[in-house]
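Is this the right way to post structure tokens for a design question? Let me know if I should format differently. Anyway, here goes:
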């Protein structure tokens, strides 16, 4: 029985071309980019070239890209850095109830420090209302941090519309685009964002590397202290091999975005069709119109998520839920709670399948067949 990995939204396999680039860099480009001698300048040159690739991918300038250790650091830098920079102008922050924990927990910490945070509700598809956002916006709002696309259900938020509303407002707009980057074409000017976070390992790059886009003129206080790297915005010797691998992954992703979107949409349709052909009772969670095509979250009737995941694993179909399983108990997904309520069945029977590199139509059909078989067994 072949293994079928359907958890690309959690992390993705590293592309072979990325591995080649990094292996070569680790043996040939070892200098500290801050050193002024030839070896250091060589590292600086390849780092600058990689930064150009990253900047171009979102329509930004080279000096607007801050290399980070990943999406979590980028989110934290954006939220704490802007909140502290603008605290004299107000202490109100707007976010949503469905953000990644890197954003949620950062906002919760700021609340303990005296900031006021409004958590916007979402509808049953996981999307916020523009009218609700407008009603929450205040004169003392200094930061709006709303994810581009949700990591659990794939729902895409109206970021460009929010950015348009904020054009004449003091608030900084940050979007966590970690799940969307490499899947959707993102342009910071079209989105009207001031800060944007991404991570490499979601698009077949290495773990431990990402970046934060900071629009020129956007206030941001550093959260790391040490050297003067990243134009004094993020201390620490740059991860040159990781950045080069990241840039290569971005190059590949940018070339294949439209192809991947079509492929992932087809995967969704194949998976759903197979479940229907097997007479499985299910509902797709999320917004069917505004969605990331590679994320498919499904609620199965009369199924317990914990036993379901164990059976999927035994059948060599590797998927996940939005829940944290610890010591035999399940902590319900905060995303699904926001969408359906605290006592909803969806909290206990929803599974996320997510698509990526290396999958074929045959893999998707086979995974759906194995899933259907498990559902029939567990429902009896």
């Amino acid at each position: 029985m072949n293994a079928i990995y359907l958890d690309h939204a959690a992390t993705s396999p590293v592309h072979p071309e990325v591995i080649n680039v990094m292996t070569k860099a680790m043996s040939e480009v070892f200098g500290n980019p801050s050193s002024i001698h030839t070896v250091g300048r060589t590292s600086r040159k390849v780092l600058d070239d990689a930064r150009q690739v990253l900047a171009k991918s979102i329509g930004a300038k080279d000096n607007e890209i801050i290399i980070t250790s990943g999406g979590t650091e980028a989110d934290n830098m954006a939220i704490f850095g802007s909140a502290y920079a603008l605290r004299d102008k107000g202490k109100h922050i707007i976010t949503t109830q469905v953000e990644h924990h890197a954003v949620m927990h950062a906002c919760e910490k700021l609340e303990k420090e005296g900031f006021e945070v409004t958590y916007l509700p979402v509808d049953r598809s996981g999307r916020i209302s523009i009218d609700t956002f407008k009603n929450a916006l205040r004169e003392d709002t200094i930061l709006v941090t709303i994810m581009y696309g949700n990591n659990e259900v794939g729902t895409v938020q109206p970021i460009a519309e929010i950015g348009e509303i904020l054009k004449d407002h003091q608030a900084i707009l940050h979007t966590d685009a970690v799940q969307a980057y490499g899947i959707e074409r993102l342009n910071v000017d079209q989105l009207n964002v001031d800060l944007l976070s991404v991570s490499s390992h979601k698009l077949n790059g290495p773990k431990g590397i990402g970046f934060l886009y900071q629009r020129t003129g956007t206030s941001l206080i550093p959260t790391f202290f040490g050297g003067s790297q990243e134009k004094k915005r993020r201390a620490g010797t740059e991860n040159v091999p990781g950045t080069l691998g990241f840039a290569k992954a971005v190059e590949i992703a940018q070339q294949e975005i439209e192809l991947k979107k079509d492929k992932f949409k087809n995967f969704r349709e194949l998976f759903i069709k197979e479940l229907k052909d097997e007479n499985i009772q299910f509902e797709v969670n999320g917004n069917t119109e505004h969605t990331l095509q590679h994320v498919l979250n499904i609620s199965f009737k009369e199924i317990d998520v914990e036993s379901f995941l164990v059976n999927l694993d035994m059948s060599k179909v590797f998927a996940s839920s939005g829940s944290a399983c610890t010591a035999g108990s399940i902590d319900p997904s905060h995303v699904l709670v926001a969408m359906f309520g605290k006592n909803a069945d969806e909290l206990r029977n929803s599974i996320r399948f997510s698509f990526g590199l290396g999958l074929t139509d045959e893999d998707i059909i086979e995974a759906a067949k194995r899933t259907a078989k498990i559902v029939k067994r567990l429902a009896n």
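Format looks fine. Someone answered above. Worth noting: The chain has a mean pLDDT of 95. Residues 240-277 form the longest helix (38 residues).
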